[in-house]
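input
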Amino acid sequence: MKVALGLGCDRGTPWQTIDHAIAEALARCGLSHAAVARVASIDLKADEDGLLTVIAWNSWPVHFYRAAELARVPVPNPSDTVRKYTGTPSVSEAAALLAAGTDMHDLILEKHKLRGPDGRNATVSIARIPQ
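output
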């Protein structure tokens, strides 16, 4: 099975927190890093050092979506707080679904959130890529 990761994080989240959140999320689904075919996030994160570091280390193809694109995707856990800061009610879930080219039926992990030791948050969602 190949999957797409949808990633979100607070501004300035260290790569260690993002990497740990991804590892936890994959483990919860019984998956390894090898199952990840692509990752995605919001275009506001296209310059996020921690996120870019983890993506580069894993050699994952990445796509950054505009808030308007993400906002059109039905998700199980929309958030008014996320909407307030990004312009869309979902980043990780919507990005995972768009990157996988599918809908909520293939969302195998909803928002997995990890708060790092510095108080910054990373969020990971995982969607199965239809074969």
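quick obs: Residues 15-28 form the longest helix (14 residues).
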